[in-house]
Design brief:
Elements lengths: L4 H8 L8 H6 L4 H10 L5 E2 L6 E4 L2 E4 L1 E3 L2 E8 L23 E2 L18 H7 L12 E6 L8 E7 L18 H7 L2 E6 L3 H5 L3 H4 L9 H16 L5 E11 L1 H9 L11 E5 L9 H14 L8 H5 L2 H19 L36 E6 L17 H10 L11 H11 L5 H9 L3 H10 L6 E6 L18 H4 L7 H4 L3 H20 L19 E5 L4 E4 L3 H4 L6
Parallel strand pairs: 3-6, 8-9, 8-10, 10-11, 11-12, 12-13, 13-14
Antiparallel strand pairs: 1-4, 2-3, 4-5, 5-7, 7-9, 14-15
Length: 563
């Protein structure tokens, strides 16, 4: 199994997944950090010791450290080990501790396919992957905060990593680091690890009965448990449990959509941001249960001995689960995408309905939302310069077979390409291919449905082009994350660093901060950002010059086949 964010983009479309302390200290401080250091911390940057950064949680005290004036608390348990008898079960509370827990290092990455994680040197360089030990004892939360002042209630940003539903962790890219945004907005920033793939979403309810009723959604229940931890503990870190914004990118964006439809998550967050992960549906119950039964059969077991499925090493279980999933997908034929793999399932209880299909879940009604995507979710030629010289005829042939979401356009390909050429004059064929494959169809569909609810919806499109890889990198999947978190001078391999991306980042981080505070992103240096309505399709364009436009690619999207 290759559980990566590229698969996520290809299946749902985008019209549709951290930073180690050592790398933090090794890097030259970016301007924003250096300024803060000069103003507040002349001399020593890192403070760590018995009484430097100690906070209370409901399970015991934790000790972190202070870096450039921001408190780091890393890898704190919000749930118990999920191995053995806890496998496939809802998350359990961690065992309280009596000593001080060392929250100095990132928590274990959830089990996933780590084979050849760094084999692609281009991708490893660009995304600067950070992966730590892999273990089922992975329910961990990180907190970045400007102060341990329980008298002040700071807005809380709760970050959910990407990687579809099968890969990733809370620190996999340097741009996930919460230090700069915590300082920029005087907010508390949280990120988490949770169960993924077969261990998070194998639905054994059909074969195992009531005991395993929750098994198809335990990866999402982990996130709910982390939000409950925030509710119960974040005040001790200077945060306001009554003002929590959930935000995720790619698979993390899809998880945000699912959370808004989960009754158990209602009231644990108050605003939502979806980046490149617009998702209206979850898995089909029958298909999910059949997949669970296929996993049991592949392992040579029956419903009478599912305890053996819990006891076997996770890698052995993954082998059985992966083979079963691949066989099911092959027999099901093309299409289906994320609903045919290991992911959340509409079980009627934990997830009563598809989040936004055909209508928005009632639990989302009062939750304001930002829905975002980037222009080149599939930046096809960034590591292969030969593709820059392709012709439009070659583009048509390519999108007949595949166009970024589970299949191609067949005999509609020519009309689609012609429509995008007309809507985006002057673009190179390779850019047309990227635009077609990265179309905003699912963003608009989600916004149309969500905008029928009382809470406001805001839509944006990130089009800024980085000057990297001979300008072939383009506005690719993931690039916008570091802009939202004021990390463009930290995520150099996405932006190049310097004043140009930093200027845009300041506007985007400011808009996010305003949204967290008020549910409205206006008032932080951008032009007026109108609420979204289906009739006009109001969309903020993020670039060196930001501007609001009405549905900028509507005419091109009209040519897309109805799915």
């Amino acid at each position: 199994m290759k559980p990566n964010r590229r698969q996520f983009v290809q299946t749902i479309g985008t019209g549709s997944a951290g930073l180690a302390l050592t790398s933090t200290l090794a890097a030259n401080p970016p301007n924003a950090i250096a300024e803060a250091h000069r103003e507040h911390h002349e001399g020593q940057l890192l403070l760590v010791g018995d009484n430097i950064a100690v906070a209370d949680t409901q399970y015991g005290k934790v000790r972190g450290y202070q870096l450039r004036g921001i408190y780091y608390f890393l890898g704190m348990p919000y749930g118990a080990d999920t191995s053995g008898a806890n496998r496939f079960m809802p998350p359990q509370k961690p065992t309280p501790w009596t000593t001080v827990y060392p929250a100095l290092w990132w928590g274990n990455t959830a089990p996933q396919n780590m084979d050849n994680r760094y084999a692609n040197k281009y991708a490893s360089f660009r995304d600067h992957w950070n992966y730590d030990d892999v273990s089922e004892d992975c329910l961990r939360i990180n907190v970045f905060t400007p102060a341990l002042d329980t008298s002040k209630k700071r807005p809380v940003l709760f970050w959910i990593h990407g990687g579809g539903y099968t890969a990733g962790n809370g620190i996999e890219q340097d741009g996930y680091n919460g230090e700069n945004f915590a300082r920029f907005g005087d907010v508390v920033f949280c990120s988490i690890n949770h169960r993924l793939g077969p261990l998070g979403f194998t639905n054994l309810a059909g074969v195992g009965g009531e005991k395993f009723a929750a098994s198809g959604n335990v990866g999402m229940l982990d996130i709910v448990a982390a939000l409950e931890w925030v509710r119960d503990n974040i005040a001790n870190f200077g945060g306001d449990p009554g003002n929590v914004t959930i935000m995720g990118q790619s698979g993390g964006g899809a998880k945000v959509c699912v959370l808004t439809a989960m009754p158990s998550a209602k009231g644990l967050f108050h605003k939502a941001v979806v980046l490149s992960g617009a998702s209206r549906k979850a898995g089909d119950k029958t298909y999910s249960e059949n997949l669970g039964a296929a996993v049991v059969k592949e392992a040579g077991l029956t419903s009478a001995d599912l305890d053996k499925l819990q006891a076997m090493p996770w890698k052995e279980f993954y082998t059985f689960a992966t083979k079963a999933q691949q066989e099911m997908a092959k027999n099901a034929g093309p299409g289906g995408g994320m609903t045919r793999g290991f992911g959340p399932v509409v079980d009627g209880t934990i997830l009563p309905q598809n989040p936004y299909d055909p209508v928005a879940a009632p639990t989302a009604a009062e939750v304001p939302m930002i829905i975002s995507s980037v222009e080149n979710e599939q930046s096809i030629s960034w590591a292969d310069s030969s593709l820059e010289s392709m012709t439009l005829d070659q583009v048509v042939e390519r999108v007949k077979q595949r166009a970024g979401f589970g299949g191609g356009f067949g005999d509609k390909a020519q009309a689609v390409v012609d429509a995008y050429v007309k809507a985006f004059p002057g673009r190179k064929p390779i850019e047309i291919w990227s635009l077609v494959s990265s179309n905003r169809e699912s963003v608009v569909e989600l916004a149309d449905v969500k905008s029928k609810q009382p809470a406001p919806v805001y839509v944006d499109w990130f089009t800024w082009q980085p000057p990297l890889f001979d300008s072939r990198l383009r506005a690719f999947h993931c690039i916008d994350i570091c802009f939202w978190f004021y990390n463009t001078d930290l995520m150099f391999t996405h932006t190049g660093g310097g004043p140009v991306p930093r200027a845009l980042s300041k506007k985007m981080a400011g808009a996010l901060l305003q949204f967290m505070k008020t549910g409205d992103p206006n008032g932080a240096g951008l032009p007026a950002w109108p609420k979204y309505a289906a009739a006009k399709g109001q969309t903020m364009i993020f670039d060196n010059t930001c501007v609001a436009k009405n549905d900028p690619d509507r005419e091109a999207r009209k040519a897309l086949p109805v799915t």
